[in-house]
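Name: Paclitaxel taxanoid biosynthesis susceptibility protein ts1
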Amino acid sequence: MPQKKVEYIYVVDSKGEPVMPTSRLGMVRRWLKSGQAIWYGNSRKTIQFVRPITTNTQELTLGVDAGFHLGLSVVSVDNQREYYASESVRDSKREKEKLEHRRDLRRGRRNRLRHRKKRFKNRKRQKKSLAPSVQHLLDFTIREIKRLYEFLPISKLVVEVAPFDNQKLANPNIKPWEYTQGRMHGFKSVKDYLLARDGYRDALDGKVYPASQLRVHHLVQRKDGGTNQPDNLVLLSDVNHNQANHVDGTLAKLAAERQTDLNTNYRGAYFMSVLAKRLPTYFANYIQTQGYITANLRTLYGIEKSHRNDAFIIAGGTDTCLRTSNIYSRTKVANNNRVLQKFYDARYIDSRDGKIKPGKKLSSGRTKRSRELDYKNQRIYRQEKVTKGRVSIRRNHYQLRPHDIVLNTKTNRIETVRSVVNRGKSVVFQTGKSTKPTNVRCLHHINGLREEKM
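Structure predicted for Paclitaxel taxanoid biosynthesis susceptibility protein ts1:
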């Protein structure tokens, strides 16, 4: 028989200090209706009392399962109750493209300034600075932990974190002097190492090419979690490293064939080492635990493996604890779409199979105008043009964004925004219905974090 789960509403007093949450949802509705309490900030699950209140807080423990997927759980060990559980993730799949778009737009603005002052001092990186992607993930983890202190009276913090030796993970028998001499020791660049490793051969056709006609290609792209390690890199000639092979899946098949040769990705271990070193600067007092302890306790209590369940064990939860139904999935998304101009490619009928395909797929394959190579010309298979290519430019900033929670004053129903269309003149809901923005009152902005109840 499944264990009963309790739903809670979080409470803060008139001064903004968090107190114990309540499961008396009927009383919450009466407090809101009578004006004794209001919704707190941008939240629809936390209330704030307007009048003074007296309450006794219990000792709550926050358990953190750190990593790329962040598990959080708040447990009261005294009364064996769980009050909060969530899994937070930062979607970095398209982060590379977004950064490139931002860079292009910024360069365009700077090029339009005819007398821009030189700014070289602001390009100097600070000492002990991290890579932007690692720093962003670290900031995201710290913000998610500190957020819970705003509406829960947490008195103890327990984090599962430990530093790792990445080189020892790759080579358990590594000698001390080998730490400074990796596989690329003695080579000036990564390409020189790949040329010596592959013997100037193309990874697709196996032919030998001059070094000037070979390009370094990532089997797993950086945006998909790939690294710059040599095991994730191959050499492709200018003939095979073209747009057609990227689109039709030829290079994806090459990555799948060589997937067994790829070494383990140690990016997660590196981040855990960074977090273990930087965590004391954000939290003065916290308890550190190890993964094997969490795994043994989870097996003992018969709880299935997940990030929020690991956080529940870290916080001191047991198989006799009363679990909560306040389980949330939080995903970091972009606050704004910086790409104001979008290009929609023309679509043609492919003469080989009669299917409709974009012009990008049925291209000539030419990537360089300075030299003529044996490109695979797919343009000859274009037949009738089905749709024309077009450019769309967004000129206004819309206040409502996807996944915002709004009140439709026309129907008096709470809806979720899917998109804003018709140049901001219409709001489309997840149900497919639409209305004017004047008929909508925003209740909750996602503010770059999409939260859904699991």
